[in-house]
Amino acid sequence: PAGARPDTAVASASSSRRASEAYTVQSGDSLSAIALPKLGNKEQWREIYRLNRSKISDPTNIQVGLVLIMP
Question: Which residues are within 8 A (CB) of 7 and not within 5 positions of it... i.e. 6 or more apart?
Fold first, then answer.
């Protein structure tokens, strides 16, 4: 749109992309159990943990309902 700042459009696209890369923890989940189907390798759990360190105090005990940012 006329007068729209280019960085606003980029931020909106970036926010939409991030939203599609989220995963909500379900009962029985572990980081490796999430990593296998979502990333193709259970060892990728470390990458999920790295991206969500501020939300996860213990990577072996993640809370149901926690929304994780996915790589």
Answer: none
